[in-house]
User: Fold this.
Amino acid sequence: MVFFTSASLIIGFVIVSVFFNEMLGNIFNPLLNGISTNAGWFFTLAVNIILLFVLYLMFSRYGDIRLGGDDAEPDFSTLSWFAMLFSAGMGIGLLFYGVAEPMFHFMVPPVPADSAAEAAQNAMKYTFLHWGLHPWAIYALVALALAFFSFNKGQPLSIRSIFYPILGEKINGGWGNLIDILATIATLFGVATSLGFGVQQINAGLNHLTGLEQSPLVQLFLIAGITTIATISVVRGLDAGIRKLSELNIWLALALLLFVFVFGPTLFIANGFVENIGAYLSSFAEIATWNETFENASWQNDWTVFYWAWWIAWSPFVGMFIARVSRGRTIREFLMGVLLIPTLVTFLWITVFGNSALYIDLFKGGNLGQGVTENVPLSLFLLLEHFPLSSVLSVLGVLVVVSFFVTSSDSGSMVIDIITAGGNPDPPIPQRLFWAILEGVVAAALLLSGGLVALQSAVIATGLPFAVVLLLLTYSLKKGLNEYTGVQTFSVKTGKLKTRHFQIESGEAPLVRFHKKSKKKQQEKSDV
Amino acid sequence: MFKQISQKYAGGCFFLLRQQEDVVVFLGTAFLVHEQGYLLTATYLLEENYEGLMVARPSNPEAFSPLSLDVVQAIPVEVIKADHTTNTALIHFTKPLIIDTPDHMVGNVESVQLGSSVLGFGFPFGHEDLQNLAVQSGIIASKVSLRDSVNLFLFDRAMHTGMAGGPLVNYDDGRVIGIMMGLFVPKEEGGDFVRGSLPGYESSFSYAISIEYGKAMLEELGLTLR
Assistant:
């Protein structure tokens, strides 16, 4: 039911967006603008509530609950686990915005600054806000709810399961199907639009490096290549495919990070890492609740609110994937792994790339800011030009981008596979093939027709209703955890079944005839 | 903790009954283990006659109940599997019911240590026409493996016949580790337990068969236990 309906709707949507992309744009772009302007305060409030709730769970008695029950053991080593959740959760965005976002905020400051140094510090602070604790708290909440209701309460590993405390048994009927269909469509379009934008960016990078022309044909080949690798990965399964690629991903990214750190302004980066975290933490309450109330500007709509909606819209996909790989961990371990460690690694990445770029503009008379704001996809490569062996480094950069794209694509397919297989964590191979290929086909169709922007707006617009759902989820997860740790009792209801009443009588207690075989032997013995 | 475990299991214990025309006769105790309507009990209570089996339970074990009930609301059950070697029987409601069971019901028998506190649940005086649910505490006195590797727990309390078929629960984690069978008789009929014991000698220990056999029966049906 979920499989066929989702597939039909997706194909229908794609046809509509190919032929009527302008009309879709006219609907969704104003809708997204309206949401940002009027519901920005709500997003700000919601993400802060979610973060506080997740921190509360981490330090509460619920932290000792093991996902999958007391006897469950982790399916993956901590390194593999972390590699997978990081690759699915954020990887690709960081590659582009690690350089671009600090430079954007440096060039167009969110708040007035008296000096370039203050503007740079503010730029890092706001980038940390967008990529720090809040997005990972959103992912952690959805992932934890999915893992808990699936592994500990016996519900299918499907988005419908997180609605169990609210909808009860209705999740197994039409309501549950509807939820899963929406989640499937949102995930596929989210991944496909990212794939479409991503190949444009890879194409820009290759053009910068080798002069390869930027054309739809090249981009189609890139989509075909990425989809092929992702399909192989997803068919090989979580352990043989996705895990290995994610690990490769992390090693490649680490190599790039180390190179920039060692051959870049090492001391400036090291100083900056500590200072950026301090600045983020010291002004955390202020910037996390800032709503541009007195500025009468729209900077926040374009950045902060966009990010909150974006992370929330992606949370079913990333949350589902994180849940799938997190069985066997305690809630405390899970939340530390999903909230704190990725946040720190993200901060390290942004500091290494962002501070390096700022250093060039602040102290080396460079003009990276201008170049980056003019051409975001090129930002990483523009930075790498300032390093020794820049060509080799840029090739490594392209490899990391491609690798992160493949892992986002294969984990997206895996999530859709699981949902459309009724929560089966190991879905059948033909189904894996179907979704992985469809993802590439949708990306290609949208790229050629120009429907990417409209569809991306549509996906992000779903962030608003889902923010409401996430707030409800905090309530239902708390309720579920309370019941789980509290005294549970049996409930037996006969419903419409008519039962008979009988007079009860005592009976003679039977003798324990425990061991029939021995009794026979005994008989044989006495016969002898 | 005793109180919490008692609250947890009291609602899952049933009278095991057999219908004989318009009356039902008490056989022992059975307890619910799965939300799809599966119960466990002791095979010997069925006396190899699987006809007319029913279960019923007291309305509210927490309230003061009359010593003897006049009538009970009984639900028919069928035997899914009854193993004579392990004395474990899996029974099932013949009609669909709306059931919710607690999480963490089945324990790990390997990790149970000597001296662990346990609680048994059942209807001790059911054969004497007294149908009150009772909770009995004790400690694990010994872990015994019979000749054909059937595992059982000895506990230091003499249990009454009506408790047979009820759950034995580990105090440490509140999970079921066994199905109560009866008084431990070192020289059981046919010399089952210990060779060379005095004939007819009864101990003040009771025993419960390990829950692992009941768990295996459910898993054979493709059912997972939370």
Notes: Chain A touches chain B through 40 residues (CB under 8 Å).
